[in-house]
Structure formats: C-alpha cells, structure tokens
C-alpha cells in the first residue's frame, strides 16, 4: 500500500516544480509523524483507559490515521 501511494505521489508530481514535490514530501512526513505520535500515545493507555474513551485496541490504527488526516 505504501509503495502504491509513493508511486501516486511521484506520478502526480510530474510536471510540477521541485519545490511543490518537496512541499508534498514534507506534508506526507508530517502526517506520518502525527500518526506515529498519536498511535504511540493511545497504545500507552491501559485497556481500562481506552474503554473509558470508548475505544478498543483494535481501533487505534484507524483513530491515529484519522488524526493524521486532519493535520
């Protein structure tokens, strides 16, 4: 999945300047950083704390992806 996304980013950057490509890469890195940070913080919570938030461990990846997409 990541390979396909990278290929899409490169293909969509064709014909645009390097500064735009660089800006896209920086944005992708920031989204990935936000995903990792959110996932790590949620994963550090106990099952009880997650339940208090209305979450289960199986939801962590999706919640982290949504948080990164909002960034």
From TrEMBL:
<feature type="domain" description="YjiS-like">
    <location>
        <begin position="25"/>
        <end position="61"/>
    </location>
</feature>
<dbReference type="Pfam" id="PF06568">
    <property type="entry name" value="YjiS-like"/>
</dbReference>
<dbReference type="InterPro" id="IPR009506">
    <property type="entry name" value="YjiS-like"/>
</dbReference>
<protein>
    <recommendedName>
        <fullName>YjiS-like domain-containing protein</fullName>
    </recommendedName>
</protein>
């Amino acid at each position: 999945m990541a390979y396909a996304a990278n290929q899409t980013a490169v293909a969509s950057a064709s014909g645009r300047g390097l500064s735009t490509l660089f800006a896209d890469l920086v944005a992708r890195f920031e989204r990935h950083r936000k995903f990792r940070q959110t996932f790590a913080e949620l994963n550090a919570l106990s099952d009880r704390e997650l339940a208090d938030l209305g979450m289960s461990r199986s939801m962590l990846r999706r919640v982290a992806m949504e948080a990164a997409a909002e960034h």
